[in-house]
Amino acid sequence: MPFSYEKKSVFAAHPRTERARAFNLGGDPKGKTFLYTNDTNVYIRDIENPAICDIYCEHSAQTSVAKYAPSGFYIASGDVTGKVRIWDTTQKEHILKYEHQPISGKVNDIAWGPESKRLAVCGEGRDKFAAAILWDSGTTIGKLNGSANHCNAIDYKPTRPYRIVTASEDMTTSYYEGIPFKFKTQLREHSNFVNSTKFSPDGNFFASGGSDSQVFLYTGKDGEKVAELLDGKKAHEGGVYSVFFSPDSKRLLTASADKTVKMWDVETQQLITTFKMGTVVEDQQLSLLWQGDYMLSTSLAGYISYLDKNNPDTPLRVIKGHNKNISMMALSSDTKSIYSAGLDNKILCWDAESGECDVAGGKAHTNMVTAMSTNGNIVASAGMDDVVRFLDTETKTFTDDVIGLDKQPQCITTKGDLMVVGTVEDICLFKNKAKVCSEAVRYTAKAAHLSPAGNFLAVGGSDSKLHIFDVSNDTLKEIDQLTTQQPVCAVQFSCDGTYLACGADKNVLLWKVQDFEPCNHLWSSHRARVTSLSWNPENKRIATGGVDGSIGIWDVDNLKEGNLIMGAHPKSVITAVAWRDSTTVVSTGHDKCIKQWTV
């Protein structure tokens, strides 16, 4: 029987960042949304409610920049191969309008002409580092050949006479007149890489910021130097990675690796405000956007801060999220919170309804988290640092309890005072966090789950078997082996303990727990290996996630049919699925997103 579903919410991936590398936020000309890139996706988020997110995922290579046309009807996005795709913003399908390849390497920045008919593109091409083209035909409109090295940024003067300026790693800012565009002059004030350049909205000025910690101001029409900010001194104590003018062109924001953002008066070149963004390396500021009343700054961690000019040391809000793959996920016992672990070793704590997020406090793992399990108000996590840590869900802080393991953990399951950790060579049983026994095995324990009553343990093995243990006497006594034909990577008892389900390669198998007899069925709609499995609270449906990026929904009362949410996480491995309630599924993937589905 067909089922219906809809995407309930997306807690989006955050911008992909690199230390000492500038990147760009884009803004909707109407001031409603902002956008950025990560992997092959472009993320468009509501500036007032960032939990509202649209994702464009049609690039075949890693995206690097995306910018709205001034008309607001189109977005141009570039990737690491040099391709620029121009696509529609008014339709849900985001229909592709044109695709061009103006340079032969990574696109670092894109700027639209004010009429939304021309594009300026720069990056890391082999034969040239910047180009100006017509948006429809891709025809070149002049030569932007002034740079001798990679260009980090480019901007197009929004008023006549039209000009283009580029910021290059040859330590120069090149200035072009047009149309057609031709080289006019090279500005050599910087003594290190020039990372960012931007025209003011009225076209009267443009600014440049570089790794030499300096910011220069020039006239927009002629490219004449006006001033060096903090004349005689450096504008920042670290490299400057982004500059951005206010909508009225009277103010200038600069972002730096010194973990500050500064606001300057354009007319007097005086410093107005310093926003102190933190004290650790991840607080370095790499990108700016000033849109209407909103001033946004993005850190090396990928966190987006809404600056408050009245309280510069405390942002109005900070949007946090993952900008590296999500390896594992667990729900709180009341399912009101989501806990997700990234490849950066952080565990983030999410409000499942609002999407508000914070990083778990205390001493976290020092390597990737491979498994998580919730037990009351504690989330137990095992990592490749060969330890188990415990997160208190009430304080959102790791406790001081740490359990060291002899082998690398692959899975973890908890129930009551019991905890089982499966590793590459053994299975360890703990009671009240003390090890009571372990058993060496000749397979890797890829998945494990304790039954609701805490008397049975099911372990999915690399040996294509489901191993059943009796743990009722605080021992590991193997009582059955269920053959699956393929390695088992996901296993879970139903909430009432009646059934046991597992994912073996592309298949989902089901047994009755009473005698561990198989149900007469085989669900096999996934196109690749099943990675995660979860029962809904009513014990009627199973959700699965797979390497194919799809979510499977399987009905126990209909053992012959299943349904897939195809491309739930496009071009991405799904790492975990879980039911929040009888109709809501949460999923996480290598696309760094957390998604909720109503099914």
TrEMBL record:
Residues 452-594 form the WDR19 first beta-propeller domain. It comes from the Eukaryota. Belongs to the WD repeat AIP1 family. The keyword Calcium does not apply. WD repeats lie at residues 56-97, 187-228, 233-274, 319-360, 523-558. Coiled coil: none annotated. Keywords: Repeat, WD repeat. GO terms for molecular function: actin filament binding. The keyword Transport does not apply. It comes from Patiria miniata. This is Actin-interacting protein 1. GO terms for biological process: actin filament depolymerization; locomotion; regulation of actin filament depolymerization; regulation of actin filament polymerization. Gene3D superfamilies: YVTN repeat-like/Quinoprotein amine dehydrogenase (2.130.10.10). InterPro entries: Beta-prop_WDR19_1st, Quinoprotein_ADH-like_sf, WD40/YVTN_repeat-like_dom_sf, WD40_PAC1, WD40_repeat_CS, WD40_repeat_dom_sf, WD40_rpt. Pfam families: Beta-prop_WDR19_1st (PF23389), WD40 (PF00400). GO terms for cellular component: cortical actin cytoskeleton.
